[in-house]
TrEMBL record:
The keyword Kinase does not apply. It comes from Chryseobacterium sediminis. InterPro entries: Chromosome_partition/occlusion, HTH_ParB/Spo0J, ParB/RepB/Spo0J, ParB/Sulfiredoxin_sf, ParB_dimer_C, ParB_N. Keywords: Chromosome partition, DNA-binding. CDD domains: SPO0J_N. This is ParB family chromosome partitioning protein. It comes from the Bacteria. Belongs to the ParB family. SUPFAM superfamilies: KorB DNA-binding domain-like, ParB/Sulfiredoxin.
């Protein structure tokens, strides 16, 4: 009774009756109009997560912070559920559902939808794509599932989510990277832009070389693209430019040596980060002697 008063006090509607939980399973069932499209309170014990939910990681600290907010203010944005017999499957809002349980509440405000399995998966996947805190690999996996499991074409998917086809294609290509590189993208060690530079290389060996170089030399995306060009064609103009475009570490070393010796210094990298050379400019023998005196 206490939970019902709390729900009604919020103006969110009554907790679902036992009858509605048991008998209303489609939009044509008697009484469906009482809760479909409206906000109602649903007991947490009657709710279960979607096993095909695209999102698999929930930050514990963020969940506890949300739980504290819910304790103070309640659930501000209702979750969305699918009616499944006497229980309810989460379409979107699993994070809010988990935090509400942590907060010690027994019910949560929700919108109820009557959808089939395919519609449920599509809604969960599309809702997932719109999130701002997903990593590039999660997004790519979601695109792939919409294409493979739902059967959408890239054109249809592009229209539904408002993304260019090229964006979808480039995203899915990241799934061809080896697991270590994908994990580096997921953890934020490298960006999706780095991943696209790596996947532009055909051989897995070259991809690994470039990945190792990006990590070791802390290359930005532009530098990674130039290094990829150098690996594809060492004699190309782009490769020569890649050698000129040094990593920040090399640039710092180049400046330090130049300041110490007071001469022009050029560090040339091989492009794979394993070797290189330092070129010192001198105008005459006197300047050479000056350099040697500082090296000794």
């Amino acid at each position: 009774m206490k939970d019902k008063k709390r729900a009604m006090g919020r103006g969110l509607g009554a907790i679902l009756s036992a009858e509605s939980k048991a008998t209303i399973n489609s939009a044509t069932d008697e009484g469906a109009d009482k809760f479909v499209g409206n906000i109602v309170e649903v007991a947490l014990e009657d709710i279960y997560p979607n096993p095909t939910q695209p999102r698999t990681y929930f930050d514990e600290k963020a969940l506890n912070e949300l739980a504290q907010s819910i304790k103070n203010l309640g659930v501000i944005q209702p979750i969305t559920l699918r009616k499944d017999g006497e229980r309810f499957e989460i379409i979107s809002g699993e994070r809010r559902y988990r935090a509400t349980k942590i907060a010690g509440l027994t019910t949560i405000p929700a919108y109820i939808r009557l959808v089939n399995d395919q519609e449920l998966l599509e809604m969960a996947l599309v809702e997932n794509i719109q999130r701002e805190d997903l990593d590039a690999i999660e997004i790519a996996l979601t695109y792939h599932r919409l294409l493979e499991e739902i059967g959408l074409t890239q054109e249809n998917l592009s229209q539904r989510i408002g993304k260019d086809r090229s964006t979808i294609t480039n995203s899915i290509r990241l799934l061809r990277l080896n697991p270590d590189i994908q994990n580096a993208i997921r953890s934020g060690e490298i960006s999706a832009g780095h991943g696209r530079a790596i996947i532009s290389l055909e051989s897995e060996e070259d991809q690994q070389v470039l990945f190792d170089l990006i990590i070791k030399e802390k290359l930005n995306v532009r530098q990674a693209e130039q290094a990829a060009a150098a690996l594809k064609n060492p004699k190309s103009p782009a490769a020569k430019k890649a050698k000129v475009e040094l990593s920040n570490n090399y640039k710092k070393a180049q400046k330090t040596i130049a300041d110490i010796l007071d001469v022009k210094v050029e560090i040339k990298s091989s492009g794979n980060g394993k070797k290189g050379k330092i070129v010192l400019d001198f105008k005459n023998e006197e300047e050479l002697e000056y350099i040697l005196s500082h090296i000794k």
